[in-house]
Structure formats: C-alpha cells, structure tokens
Design a protein that fits this description.
The structure holds 2 protein chains of 2 kinds.
Chain A: H1 4-35, H2 41-59, H3 64-88, H4 93-115, E1 130-133, E2 136-139, H5 140-162, H6 164-174, H7 176-181, H8 186-211, H9 223-232, H10 238-258, H11 264-278
Antiparallel strand pairs in A: 1-2
Helix pairs in contact in A: 1-5, 1-8, 1-9, 1-10, 2-3, 2-4, 2-8, 3-8, 5-6, 5-10, 6-8, 9-10, 9-11, 10-11
Chain B: E1 2-5, H1 10-21, E2 39-45, H2 52-71, E3 80-86, H3 91-103, E4 109-111, H4 116-129, E5 133-135, E6 149-151, H5 159-172, E7 180-186, H6 189-204, E8 208-215, H7 223-232, E9 236-243, H8 245-255, E10 263-268, H9 270-275, E11 283-286, H10 300-313, H11 323-342, H12 347-356, E12 359-361, E13 364-366, E14 380-385, E15 388-393
Parallel strand pairs in B: 2-3, 2-4, 4-5, 5-6, 7-8, 7-9, 9-10, 10-11
Antiparallel strand pairs in B: 1-3, 11-14, 12-13, 14-15
Helix pairs in contact in B: 1-2, 2-10, 2-11, 3-4, 5-6, 7-8, 11-12
C-alpha cells in the first residue's frame, strides 16, 4: 500500500495535470455545446500558439506573458474567421468533425514544415520550480495554469449565466429560431464564441509551450482524454470541463501511484463509459 | 509524399568523387562516375507522425550516402535513385508502401524503414517478394526471422541478455556499486523487451529491483511515477524511454526536489536530454559517438561534417551526428558493398554474399552469420558530460580523458 505522502503527491500532480486537460477542453466544450461544432482544430491551434510563444521566446526573447498577449487575440481572430467559413458553407456537426480534423492535419504539416519534426523545448527558469508545502511539492507553472484555468472557467460560467450575451448564446444553442425571434443575432454571437474558444486555445498553448516539449505529432497527444473531459463535464459547461479534467487527472494519477502506471488511460475512459451509462443528474 | 534522392547532377558527382577519394570502399571498384539506367532503391521513413524526429536524422544520413555512392561508382556502375516514401509512423502504412514500391514503382532493391513496428510490417512484404531488407533500428532481433533481413546495427542476437550486463558491469565499476534499482519502462515493444531483460539480469546479479513499472507509450504525466521513484529512492534508475519521456520524467523528479542517483535511459531523444538542465550525467545506450576512437574510423570525420551541414540546413536543433544517423549510414554501406561484391541486383545472390562475408561499416566490421543474421553485440554506454554525449563504457571506447562519472 502506498504511503500517505505518495498518495497526496500523486493527487496534487493529478489535479494539476487535470488543469491542462480542463483548459484544453474549455474551448472545445463551448463550440461543441453551444455551436454544435466539434472543433478538432482546437488542438492544432493550441500547438500553433505554443510554437509561436516558443519562437517569440527563443528568437526574440519575448516573455511568455507578452507573447500570450499577442497570441490570444490572434487566435480569437482565427477562431472567428474559421466560424465565418463554417457559416458560409453551412457546416453541420458531423461535417465540422471531418473538416476541422483536416484543418488540424494541415496545421500539423505547416508546423512541421516551418519548425521541423524535431523536438523543441522552451527552457525557462521557472519550468521546474516548486512550492514546498509540508511533505508535498506544488509545481509553480502547473499551479499558475490551474489558477488561470479556474479563473477562465469561473468567468466564462458567469458570463454564460449572468449576462445578456451569455443567455442569448445559450438560448441560440437551444433554439436559434426562437432566439432570433427575440432579437438575438446568433450569427454574430457565434463569431464571438468561436473567437473566445480559439482564444482559450491560445492560452492553453502558452502553457503548453512552457510545460511541454513541442513536436508536430504532439498535437494529438491529449485528444482522447480531452474528449472524455468534455463529455464528462457536459457540453457547453466550462466549469464542468475544468472539474472533469481535474477529476480525471487525479484519478489517473492515483491509479498510477497504486497500480501500474500503464493502467492510467483505462481510468479516464472507464469514467467516460460510466458517465454515459449512468448519466447522473448532479453532473 | 515521394522524394527521389540521387537523380544525380554533375555537382553532386564531383563532390561525391572528392569525398570518395578518401573513402574506404573496396579497391576493386573502379572510380568512374556511374552511368546508365538508375538503380532504384525504395524505402519508407516516418517523415511525419510520432517517429518523425528520429526519422529526420535517418533521412539526412540516407541522402549523404546516396550522394556519396553516386560520387563513387554507384551500384554496379549505375547511379542510385532513392525512392523515399512517408509511412507516417504507421506500420500498416509502411506495409502498403513497400507493396507499392515493389509492385508499382518496380524498385530494384529496398532499404528498411525506421523503428521496430514499421520494420516488422515491411519485413512481411519483403519476405513475400524475396527482397533483401537491411534495417538499422529493430530492437528485438529475435523477431527478425526472415532469412534475407539483415541488421545494420550491432545489437547482437540477444540484447536483452547482453546489454543489461554491459550496464551492470559499468555500474559495478563505480566507487559505490548500486544495490537497488528501479526499472521503469514505456510499453513500446523494444523498450519493454529490454526492460524485462534488465530486471532479470539485475536480479541474477543480486541487484534488488525495488520497482518494475510500465507506462503507456506517449505518456505525458510523470508526476505520480516520479513520486513513486522518489519514495523508492533507488541507487540506480533504469528508464526504458523513447523520445522525450526521459526529459519529462527528470523534470517531474526535479519538481519533487529529487535527483536520481545513476540514471540510464534507453532510447531518448539525444539532443533534448543532453541539453536539458536535468540531463547532466544521464547514461544512455549507443554504438558510436563523434569522438575518438570512432572519429579515426574511415569516413567518420567526413560523415560528421556532412551531417552537421545538412542538419543545419534542415533546421534541426541538434546537429551532431549520432548512432541513429550512423545506423542509416551503415545500412547503405552494407547495401553498396554487398551489391557490388555480389555483382548483381538479384536478392538471392546479395543475401547469399552477406551471409558468407563480413562488411566494413562505420560500426566496424559486421558479420551476419549468427542467429537472426546478427553478429556480435557492440552496445556501449554514453553519458552526458558538460551537455555533450561521451562514450564512457566499455573503457576501451571512452574518449581520451573521459571516465564514467557516478552520481
């Protein structure tokens, strides 16, 4: 039986890793839940952002936070432009899956063309810093990621629940026709939401650049687990996505601490199957 | 994606001839520019997908060799055209593409792809058509059951038995030999195969294996694994890693304020680990490094310089020649020697010649008459010292003034 320290450390590591799942899942959850578009290019946009942050940091010595200030609006623009194309060609839910997969593959090829297939690593002094709390260690970057993800999830949830625009978005997702009858311009709102989702990919990409090592094929690394997170967290629910991410991260990590680490992927997908079958009200 | 390398130009031939003048090719081969119909040599590499980082190294090495061979006398006096396809790191794609190369492109010869899984897939096709297949990166020799498949890298027939003992010999030589170890491995077949061997050989030599852990290939979350390693606190950590997994593990350990004592990594990405702040004194498998005594081997200085030049041009971040590149160089050296010596493009004759002869390669003289067409094992250990890989074991292959440093 593992020690309490090992279990506690595994739990901390898992929750923090889940923060990344949640952050990546948020934009995907919004576009899938509120626009009925399954945007696989979200992962590619996150990695494109990561590469840009890496390039700005290593070549021009731009601090990652300033890079994020450039990357996030740029991604917002790309997201909105992407939605214009979806709207223009009346792309439906299934077609969006295929089209955005193709976009992701094209972006992956573009990334490889410019940055090569080789690994890229953005070394920063704070990459491996940790805060010591009793017998436990809390990595600084992952903690920052979780705080940012938490603020975004909470802010987005409030925006969707408490503001007119958020309510209009939710109404459009329920029934665009009826919402339009009440004066809601769902097309403009969809551009806004697509931009926000892609902006979240930009934020996720900034952290990916700081935490992970980059390679074009890594775009697909988190695809399975993030999809599980989106579904467990409920479509269109950013807070649910973050909590589901942390739940899966923690479960995987504790499984790694107790059993063989090879069992970790089994945990997330078992949870997904349970949620889909059981469909609990409280999620 | 099709790349054709070697549709030769005069500049290439002249450059190759200059290089070839200093080469160690058999003196019986006349030094005339090749002419006539090109000999088509087909192959795939994982130019995209999760194996692309290493395949990029293989591609550069292959280009160097095709240019060099064409700068000498080609194959049987004819220029070589390398028909290179992208298997996307997918074995099933490799299988289809080798089928295409042989039946549609009508290549005269084939060269193996990179990595165990694509090699196994391609080997099935090679066997169906009776083609000789030389490969440089299949880590499980016992799976090479096709009698016309030849290894270009000296793993030896049982690396899961021989290499762990090389590692344990090295560890036994340090002032405080390890009494305990943790074996941590990816489930990637060749890594897992070596990890099982390491566990068995360590226990046979009374080194206690505190933990044997397997993780899913491509795992990115090493937090909990690092916590387990820290809690076990072994004298020696053996990691069956690929690509960046070692970097991720060492970073996760550092976040827990833990630095492993004496840590070995099986197949890591060489550049990122050497340059990592956590990589100092990391140990790793190798067959050759750009240092003495290897730099004195025929052609090695030239290959190292050419590799660097091409890697810079290809915008690769790590431009030093390594065992991966040398594996591909060896592959082409074996093909060139065998074809020209057999005097034929006939696969049966080439295979028969290889089984009966030794070939001088960048790895030294290789033979193919042992189990699974393997010869002697020649795996070594290198260590990161001052952000550079240095061979440290066996001692006779260590660079001048370089010693294994315990940590």
């Amino acid at each position: 039986m593992p020690s309490a320290t090992l279990l506690g450390q595994a739990l901390i590591s898992g929750v923090l890793a889940g923060g990344m799942y949640g952050l990546l899942a948020m934009g995907l959850s919004l576009s899938w839940g509120l626009l009925r578009l399954v945007n696989l290019s979200h992962f590619a946009l996150a990695f494109l952002s990561a590469y840009i942050v890496y390039e700005l940091g290593t070549t021009w010595h731009v601090a990652p936070w300033w890079s994020a200030a450039l990357v996030v609006p740029a991604m917002f623009g790309i997201g909105a432009a992407q939605h214009w194309l979806f709207d223009r060609f009346r792309v439906n839910e299934l077609a969006s899956l295929l089209i955005t997969f193709s976009v992701a593959v094209i972006l992956e090829a573009g990334i490889q063309l410019y940055w090569t297939a080789d690994f890229r690593r953005y070394e920063t002094p704070y990459a491996t810093r940790s805060i010591k709390a009793g017998p436990f260690f809390i990595p600084v970057l992952e903690l920052a990621l979780c705080l940012v993800a938490g603020a975004l999830a909470w802010g987005t949830w409030l925006w969707l629940r408490k503001t007119f625009v958020g309510k209009a978005l939710r109404a459009s997702a329920e029934d665009a026709g009826i919402a339009a009858a009440y004066g809601v311009n769902h097309r403009q709102l969809a551009y806004l939401l697509s931009g926000v989702g892609a902006g979240y990919a930009g934020i996720a990409g900034t952290f990916i650049a700081l935490i992970a090592t980059l390679a074009p094929a890594e775009i697909w690394t988190w695809l399975g687990v993030v999809f599980a997170v989106v579904i467990i967290g409920r479509l269109g629910n950013p807070l649910g996505a973050l909590l589901a991410g942390m739940l899966i991260g923690a479960s995987q990590s504790v499984a790694m601490a107790i059993f063989s680490p090879a069992w970790a992927p089994v945990v997330s997908f078992s949870m997904l199957i349970v949620v889909l079958l059981w469909d609990p009200e409280w999620i | 994606m099709i790349e054709r390398v070697g549709t030769w130009r005069r500049r290439r031939v002249l450059a190759g001839m200059a290089a070839g003048a200093a080469s160690f090719a058999a003196p019986s081969i006349s030094r005339a520019a090749p002419s006539g119909k090109p000999v088509k040599v087909g192959g795939t590499l994982s130019l995209t997908g999760f194996l692309a980082q290493t395949a990029a190294i293989h591609k550069i090495a292959a280009e160097i060799m095709v240019e060099e061979i064409n700068g000498r006398n080609g194959l049987l006096g004819r220029p070589v055209e390398y028909v290179l396809l992208d298997d996307q790191s997918k074995p099933e794609m490799a299988r289809s593409l080798y089928e295409k190369l042989i039946t549609v492109d009508k290549v005269d010869l084939i060269q193996g792809p990179y990595a165990t899984a694509p090699i196994l897939a391609a080997m099935g096709v090679a066997q169906r058509y009776g083609k000789v297949m030389i490969q440089s990166s299949m880590g499980i020799p016992k799976l090479q059951t096709y009698d016309r498949a030849f290894p270009a890298t000296p793993f030896g027939p049982e690396p899961d038995k021989t290499y762990p003992n090389v590692i344990l010999d090295a560890m036994a030589s340090i002032p405080t030999p390890p009494k305990t170890m943790v074996v941590l491995t990816s489930k990637f077949p060749s890594a897992q195969f070596m990890a099982k061997g390491m566990q068995k050989e360590a226990e046979a030599r009374s080194v206690k294996v505190l933990l044997y852990l397997e993780y899913e290939s491509g795992n990115h979350d090493f937090g909990a694994i690092a916590a387990r390693v820290k809690e076990a606190n072994p004298d020696f950590l053996w990691v069956g890693s690929l690509g960046l997994e070692s970097n991720l593990l060492l970073e996760a350990l550092r976040k827990l304020d833990y630095a492993p004592r004496n840590h070995f990594h099986l197949y890591p990405a060489p550049g990122p680990l050497a340059l990592s702040p956590d990589g100092d004194r990391a140990l790793c498998s190798t067959f050759i490094e750009p240092d003495e005594p290897f730099m004195s081997r025929p052609g090695m200085k030239r290959y190292a310089a050419e590799y660097k030049e091409k890697a810079v041009k290809a915008n690769l971040p790590y431009t030093t020649i390594d065992a991966q590149a040398c594996g591909m160089i060896s592959e082409w050296q074996i093909l060139e020697t065998a074809v020209n010596a057999a005097g034929s493009l006939d696969d049966a004759r080439i295979a028969a010649w290889l089984k009966a002869h030794k070939v001088d390669t960048i790895y030294g003289r290789l033979r193919f008459d042992g189990p699974y067409n393997h010869g002697d094992a020649a795996q070594m250990i290198k260590q990161v010292q001052h952000k550079e890989w240095k061979v440290v074991w066996p001692k006779e292959f260590a660079a001048p003034g370089v010693k294994l440093i315990a940590s």
